Amino acid sequence: MKVVLCNDGTCVPPKCPVVDIRSDKVIIGEKKNVCTLTKAQYNILRQKILSGEI
What we know:
The protein has 54 residues and is of the alpha+beta class. Helices cover 24% and strands 35% of the residues. It is built from one helix and four strands, in the order E-E-E-E-H. The longest helix has 13 residues, at 39-51. The model has no long low-confidence stretch (mean pLDDT 88).
């Protein structure tokens, strides 16, 4: 699943940051500015966001 993190008309699609969820990893960012997380790391990040910790 790939989710683009832009509101309509806010930025040009090739420059929009994305969250690319794959079976074995999650890639967050844009073009060459990316962070690659394992699924376990992504789930920790997700839980921290949902709990309001970050």
